[in-house]
Design a protein that fits this description.
Order of helices and strands: EEEHHHEEEEHHEHHHHEHEEHH
Helix content: 25-40%
Shape: globular
Number of strands: 11
Strand content: 5-15%
Strand order of the largest sheet: 1-2-8-4-7-10
Number of helices: 12
Radius of gyration: 22 Å
Amino acid sequence: MARCRGRFVCPVILFKGKHICRSATLAGWGELYGRSGYNYFFSGGADDAWADVEDVTEEDCALRSGDTHLFDKVRGYDIRLLRYLSVKYICDLMVENKKVKFGMNVTSSEKVDKAQRYADFTLLSIPYPGCEFFKEYKDRDYMAEGLIFNWKQSWDLVQQTQNYLKLLLSIVNSDDDSGLLVHCISGWDRTPLFISLLRLSLWADGLIHTSLKPAEILYLTVAYDWFLFGHMLVDRLSKGEEIFFFCFNFLKHITSEEFSALKIQRRKSLPARDAGFTLEDICMLRRKDRGSTTSLGSDFSLVMESSPGATGSFTYEAVELVPAGAQTQAAWIAALSNRETRLQEVRSAFLATYSSTVGLRAVAPSPSGAIGGLLEQFARGVGLRGTSSGTL
């Protein structure tokens, strides 16, 4: 529960001395108090689990503005953990400002925190379609090119995923020591997608997990980034929402030097390649030019929120090769060729395993009625119902 629906910021990659973290989004009052009551009841009436945390500083008290309310407590400890991990950038993949279930706000984004508790962080709102959208990807015979989510901009699913990954790579490859948090709503679909792509991209450059072979890095990212953090593959397959497959099939789109974080590059602005938005546009966009963050119906929904308390603003600088001698350029070309080969080997290993175990086919949905189907979905979601051997 902590790694999935609960807000527990967890560092999962250490790169250049900075923590790349993941989590779910912030729990709303309904979910927060519901879980608090659940924990109280099943712990035999024990005191508030947050009350025994030691070393409460004056800064924590200031965060709560003197209020001992549970809501403020949990937010305060979340911020303490983010600061402990030196996280400055928070990339929010949520489309909504708040998630509503059964008429009740259960989760919310940092960008709509009324008390401005996250004012000292740089919030990047990068809305990305949820797992439901990937049924369309499957129904189009796994073709992401030309598949556009329902919003007013020209990126298809390939371009959108590529641009978001470039943004994450530029943050982690910056010269400062600030960490990064990536999260969606529950942290088990969109979050592992980008954490996995980030991990595999850095590995392909030879910058992390240098001792792991393609099959080993595939095992690591599938087991750790996806399943250990709660991705419900069986449930997603039953609905045709194959975001898990999309992640590894997408490796064919990030083999070029555009996605390389090698230090042989030098930072230099590149001319615009087309009339669309560049990553520099995203991060340098003036507040007056921004669209609304409330939905993907905006003219431009991918925005960066530089909070009033933020120290400085994040800028992106594109990269190109250093003009050097033939030996340096030969080494660079060899490194890029190796990157492409390594990513292709991971993708090939995944496709072979996926085809032999899951297969590129839909799993028949439950024939139960609406109420029965709702209960069945709940049972699967909380792990009360196992998986039959015929499902996979």
